[in-house]
Design brief:
By secondary structure, this protein is of the alpha/beta class. Helix 1 crosses helix 3, helix 4 packs across helix 14 and helix 7 crosses helix 11. The chain has a nine-stranded mixed beta sheet with strand order 3-2-4-7-1-8-11-10-9, with helices on both faces. The chain is built from 14 helices and eleven strands.
Length: 396
């Protein structure tokens, strides 16, 4: 095991479409995390910001942007970008600074102000950018990619649109109990089936929205937490960061193609399952030790894929696990008790941090009506564009 760091404080700005600056969202989340930690802003030795490339140059130097907005006080500043995994990379950067002795206290912040509709590449002509090419050459928006995964599950495992709808019903029920969620109304399977088709077989309510929002954490060494009077803090035990291996035999954005496996056979270590496996190995635990999971449910079908990638069940068994009620609140292994992206939408640099916010609240026993009884170990799973796989394991 690499070593543990403490989560001293956690804060969030509610998700929605607020029409204001990402800096405002991030500083509010940061101040909430500081208050939760019982620290003042000058007590922070380092700031790590998760970048948002859509918000101009301030978004691309987010660490300095947030430090300046909070009031320059001499802290070390770092900015990181890993697409949808940016928040997890920011957490890992903060952890490295703490474990190396560079800083005892680190503020991690991610915030976004998202455009209306689906995400598209930044402006300009970039023919050497695969993300730009998939839009210009194929017209392949993110929902088209989500639908390809859904079709794959239907063809290989026999999943149905009704299975996908049941994921939305489950997550909407959890999100209804989350005061920070954007969508806080229960949803029925009939409402999912009646929503417009976006990319067959996925309907509007099968796909997450794009949102404004922010999340922040104050991390510290475990010794600092105890000196600060927190004898039993939530601790981050592992953060994985993996990339794909050749051959890639399943679709992975931004490439709408797979590698040729001729002469290689099947991939020995498929990308998505390797994300959690690396975290389990570092933490010295397995899926049987988990109390809950927060996964990256860009679509309902992709949540089912994560069940299998996390080792909660075997390949093709995700829909069965869902049907049993195992992944719902009150089930054996609740998945997305926050409500997930289905209830929040994507605020890209904030979402992996928001996942750890939820683990923190659950492990502290402060999740209210969505509390997982006896929660002791939680995992997150997230995947960013261009092969950024990340997972965080928190324990108490």
């Amino acid at each position: 095991m690499t070593g543990e760091v403490a989560v001293l404080g956690a804060g969030m700005h509610p998700w929605g479409k607020w029409g204001r600056s990402f800096v405002e969202y991030g500083t509010k989340a940061a101040r909430a995390a500081l208050a939760d930690a019982g620290l003042d802003w000058p007590d922070i030795a380092s700031v790590v910001g998760a970048n948002t490339v859509r918000c101009g140059y301030p978004g691309q130097v987010a660490g300095a942007t947030f430090a300046g907005a909070l009031g320059w006080q001499g802290a070390r500043v770092t900015s990181v970008y890993a697409a949808c995994a940016s928040g997890a990379r920011a957490i890992d950067t903060a952890r490295a600074q703490i474990l190396s002795g560079m800083a005892d206290t680190v503020l991690v912040v991610g915030a976004d102000a998202a455009p209306k509709g689906f995400f598209a590449p930044s402006g300009g002509d970039r023919p050497d950018d695969p993300d730009w090419l998939r839009f210009r050459v194929l017209g392949a928006t993110n929902p088209a990619y989500f639908a390809l995964w859904a079709r794959r599950r239907m063809a290989v495992y026999g999943d149905t649109p009704e299975d996908f709808a049941a994921v939305k019903v489950k997550n909407a029920a959890a999100g209804a109990a989350n005061p920070h969620a954007r969508y806080r109304s229960p949803v029925t399977a009939e409402e999912v089936a009646a929503s417009p088709v976006v990319a067959d077989p996925l309907r509007l309510l099968d796909i997450c929205a794009t949102s404004d929002g922010a999340a922040a954490l104050v991390l510290s060494s475990v010794d600092f937490a105890r000196r600060h009077g927190v004898a039993d803090p939530v601790r981050i035990r592992a953060v994985s960061s993996v990339s794909p291996r050749h051959p890639r035999t399943a679709l992975d954005l931004p490439d709408i193609a797979t590698d040729s496996a001729a002469g290689f056979g099947s991939a020995a270590d498929a990308f998505r399952p390797s994300i959690a496996r690396a975290a389990y190995e570092e933490a010295g635990i397995g899926p049987e030790d988990l109390s809950l999971a927060e996964v990256y449910d860009l679509s309902t079908a992709l949540e089912l894929e994560w069940y299998e990638d996390l080792g909660l069940c075997g390949a093709g068994e995700g829909a069965g696990l869902l049907r049993e009620g195992a992944t719902a609140l009150g089930g054996r292994i609740p998945v997305n008790p926050s409500g997930g992206l289905a209830s929040f939408g994507e605020a890209v640099p904030a979402q992996a941090i928001a996942q750890v916010y939820e683990l923190t609240q659950q492990l502290r026993g402060r999740a209210g009506d969505r509390q997982v009884a006896g929660a002791r170990v939680g995992i997150t799973a997230n995947q960013g564009l261009f092969g950024h796989g990340s997972s965080v394991i928190a324990v108490r």
